[in-house]
Amino acid sequence: MKFYLPNVLGLLVISCGFLAISPAYAAEENQQKSEKVAPKGPRFESEIQAFIAKDKVNPPAQGKILFIGSSIFRKWTTLTEQMSPLPVYNRGFGGSRTQDVLFRMDQIVFPYNPKIIVYYCGSNDINANLKPEAIVANFLKFSERVANKLPKTKIIYISINKAPQKKDRWDWVEDANNKIKKYCETTPLRSFIDVNPVLLNADGSSKEELFVTDKLHLKQPAYDGFTKIIKPILTREWEDVSTQ
Question: Structurally, how many domains does the chain consist of?
Fold first, then answer.
């Protein structure tokens, strides 16, 4: 029942939409179309089968740290290096929404028996015009399923990014984040980490230099900033679960 709000002054770092007529929505729609989604059958089947094939060749060790969610994690290509020596592995799949993560739990969550799950998803839900209540409800379902099957596993929720691409819906972002933070505060083995201070100036505006041209996805300096916030917390959490 923890949440983490970083000391912004102490961080010297550089650091899912609305109507179809919106340029921001169109950018996200085009981005999602570029993802490798199977033309038929369940969403993201090709990505999930690729994970499964990889796991057959080189199975991840049981009881480690799973990063799961959407493209913000999938595009974090330096994750393993930046979190070292923590035993992390990345199962983010681009364009995914909270319902997709729920649907895939039996394939890319439970088989790994993780001791800690780091979760980022919800941004694409917002871009698909799904309201904060749906994001919260799906995360709670995810949390409850983990509690039932892996009762000792910790879940750390990473705040939905305030990307410039969805500036007109930052109130939705804040609503979802605040509701999930309150849930984590009152629920055992659940924590919330706010990474938005990495992405915002002192006046609350976006550090647009941290985003690629779609104003949604991130450049490496943003991930460097995320590492400075997440890694110390994750290190403490890993020490806790490792002694149990």
Answer: 1
